Amino acid sequence: MASSGDVDVWPGQAPGRHAHVVHAQVIEINRDADWQPPEPRPWRTRTRLAVAALTIALAAGVYFAGIARPDSLDPIFQRVGTAEAMALDGTRAYVSGNNFVRAYELDSGTQLWSRRVVGLATLEVLGGDRLAVATVDVGQRPLVEVLDARTGDVVWQRQTRFVARAADVLVVSGPLSDNRIPLRGLAIADGAPRWTVEMEPTATVAGITGPLSTDQVEVLPGHLRVRDLTSGRIVVDVPEPATAASATVVGETALVVDPAGMITAHDAGDGRFLWRQPSPVIGIFSAFGDCGRYICHINDRGTVALDRVTGRRAWKADKRYLSVPVDEQHMFVAGTFEGFHGPDTAVADPRNGQVRAETAPWRALGVIDGSELLVWRYDGPQRQLIGLFDALTGHTRVIGRAEDWATPPTCVTSPRHVLCANTFDFAVWPR
After folding, report:
1. Which DSSP state fits 342?
2. Distance CA 96, CA 116 (A)
3. What averages of pLDDT result for each successive group of 10 residues across the chain (431 residues)?
4. CA 292/CA 10 separation, integer angstroms
5. Measured CA distances, 227 to 181, 210, 235, 268, 346 (Å)
6. Cβ neighbours of residue 402 under 8 Å, at least 6 residues apart?
7. CA 22/CA 190 separation, integer angstroms
8. Considering only Cβ atoms within 10 Å of each terminal Cβ, which end of the chain, N or C, has fewer?
9. Do 353 and 315 meet the contact criterion of CB atoms below 8 Å apart?
10. At residue 59, what are phi and psi to the nearest 5 degrees?
């Protein structure tokens, strides 16, 4: 693995539709050339030990004083029930399981309402006291309902499939009509149609991008397009001669891979062509990840970091890393394809791929919030501790303890709370 010795500005991307500007200041300190530090006087052994002990005590005091430790590790509330899907907002917790969606008050755990649903549900907090519930029953009939989050009453519903949320619009699709895919934008407030378009069946949706996550990148034979999901309009349409075997969006870069393994990169903001390079390694598995200033190509033989602007290889790691950048010197990496909830999760340096910190003995739970990763570990045979591992400091802050939990939980977070579920119950802790 080669280390990076150059001085770069991260992310090092040429200006595009969503360009970022980085400003820097340099402060120079002039020192008198004739000045010399005084000669140190030798200390006695007992004095040195006393000073060392005092320094350690002061450092520990400063460190622990900076951590907001909870008065108790007990949850705010714990309830029996299956949690197949969960969501949080500022005042309520939402849990879906056994064909019901229930809402609980976060401060007390009081159940506010319960609503029956048919099939597996996914939950999306919309803000403004609105909750979207998308279900697909055994007959594959999708339904989208927007509920009043305070009461559980239905504000509006449509027999359609949930795609994404874009600002104050819910994007839905289907069913197929005359070999075309209808895509619709519905107002979150009342379900009124904002726009309707028909996507070509040959279009490959690469992903959602943009600062507000409202741009959808689509690849068609001969074209790469960017669609504004708040209006449904095509805002970028540029030539793309490659036939897409696959397409994906990594940060602000759209990547198209053709059947021969050639990778073409475009700026996802304005569609500008960036580079075209052969795949570093051809194998059974191939994917791309966000490594901050670089794009990580994950393949059968490890991870190769490619420069976003030129496509040139920057470094290689032996492990196949999923990645989420934190800043120009830290990123979370996971050595499994399932996500950030395994024992092989660490913090790496995006500049060279070298591991900077390990989470062990804590195990990752797959929830990343800013620079923090939700983690857990056993605290006895049937007891677990829940904590937040900080990528910048390498320290874990314990926030809760769960009793009678023997398997890894699933969790969601908000700025103030953590909601976790085990096999037969779920609980909420303050952050």
Report:
1. S
2. 9
3. 43 52 36 41 49 45 40 92 95 96 97 93 95 84 95 96 95 79 94 94 91 94 96 96 92 94 95 92 81 92 93 92 94 83 88 94 93 94 94 96 92 97 96 93
4. 8
5. 15, 11, 6, 11, 36
6. 75, 383, 384, 385, 386, 409, 420, 422, 427
7. 41
8. N
9. yes
10. -65, -45
Residue 225: which of 233, 214, 213, 236 has the closest Cα?
Answer: 236
Strand, coil or helix: 358:
strand
Cis-peptide into 175, omega within 30 deg? yes
The CA dihedral of 9, 11, 17, 18, to the nearest 10 degrees, is -110
- Number of Cβ within 10 Å of residue 399's Cβ equals 19
Q: Which residue carries 């009342």 as its tokens?
A: 190
Amino acid (1-letter code) at residue 56: I
**Cα-based distances in Å from 130 to 104, 150, 168:** 15, 8, 11
Element (H, E) at 120: strand 120-125
Rounded Cα–Cα distance for residues 427 and 79 (Å):
6
CA dist., res. 380 & res. 175, Å (int): 51
Q: Residue 397 and residue 69: Cα distance in Å, rounded?
A: 8
- Whose tokens are 């309902």? That residue is 145
Spatial separation of the C-alpha atoms in residues 408 and 421, rounded to whole Å: 9
Amino acid at 96: S
Can you list the alpha helix ranges (DSSP code H) found in 164-283? none
8 A C-beta contact, residue 184 and residue 224: no
Which amino acid would we find at residue 184? R
